[in-house]
């Protein structure tokens, strides 16, 4: 069985470390997972006034998430939390009340930073938001990547054998997690 996974990166930067880590993880995933990259940079700020007549970008975003069987998030940490653009996307997908596109979709979270704590705060703030949206988040293995800039080569590919091994195990576990909850 194959599962369609929506991949949401919480950084808009073209050379985002988290985008590179997400790409590396997708390349190491079992064949049971098929990936759709979901861009969130074009979403206007959430405004409840638009719940009944949403902007086209919101509708297209929600449709992408609806089509997914599972969710893979990759996020940096801004001020000990998730970037505003990621929180905005979560809010847009969760509204209007009672019509969340996230509900019941199994998820996993990767977080990476050049800093020392692996974006731990962002990873856990995201988990907290997803739990309230009825998203079963894979508990282990947890992936917090510190010093990410030292683990990638000049092309953005993972050059660290230990990280490759961790991402491979993470994606195997995610495939099993998705199989338990999706469909």
Offer a few descriptive terms.
single chain, about 180 residues, alpha/beta, Rossmann fold, 5-stranded parallel beta sheet, about 35% helix
Q: Could you characterize what this model shows?
A:
The chain is of the alpha/beta class. The protein has one domain (3-181): Flavodoxin domain (Rossmann fold). It contains 5 helices and 5 strands, in the order E-H-E-H-E-H-E-H-E-H. The protein has a 5-stranded parallel beta sheet, sandwiched between helices. The protein is globular, with a radius of gyration of 16 Å.
Summarize this structure briefly:
With 183 residues, the chain is of the alpha/beta class.
CATH top-level class: Alpha Beta
CATH architectural label: 3-Layer(aba) Sandwich
Question: Measured on Cα atoms, how large is the radius of gyration?
Answer: 16 Å
- Poorly predicted runs are none
Strand composition percent: 15-25%
Helicity level: 25-40%
Give the averaged pLDDT, no decimals.
95
Write the H/E string, N to C: EHEHEHEHEH
The helix tally amounts to 5
- Counting DSSP E segments of at least 2 residues, the number of strands comes to 5
Helix vs. strand class: alpha/beta
In total, the number of domains comes to 1
Dominant shape: globular
């Amino acid at each position: 069985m194959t599962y369609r996974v929506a991949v949401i990166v919480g950084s808009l930067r073209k050379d985002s470390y988290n985008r590179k880590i997400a790409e590396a993880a997708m390349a190491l995933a079992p064949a049971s997972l098929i990936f759709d990259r979901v861009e969130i940079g074009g979403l206007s700020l959430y405004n409840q006034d638009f719940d009944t007549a949403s902007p086209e970008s919101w509708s297209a975003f929600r449709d992408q998430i609806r089509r997914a069987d599972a969710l893979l998030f990759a996020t940096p940490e801004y001020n000990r939390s998730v970037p505003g653009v990621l929180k905005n996307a979560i809010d847009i997908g969760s509204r209007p009340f009672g019509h969340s596109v996230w509900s019941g979709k199994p998820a996993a979270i990767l977080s990476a930073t050049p800093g020392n704590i692996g974006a731990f705060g962002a990873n856990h703030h995201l988990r907290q938001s997803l739990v309230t949206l009825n998203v079963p988040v894979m508990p282990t293995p947890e992936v917090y990547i510190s010093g990410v800039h030292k683990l990638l080569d000049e092309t953005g590919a993972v050059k660290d054998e230990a990280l490759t091994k961790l991402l491979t195990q993470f994606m195997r576990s995610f495939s099993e997690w998705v199989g338990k909850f999706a469909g």
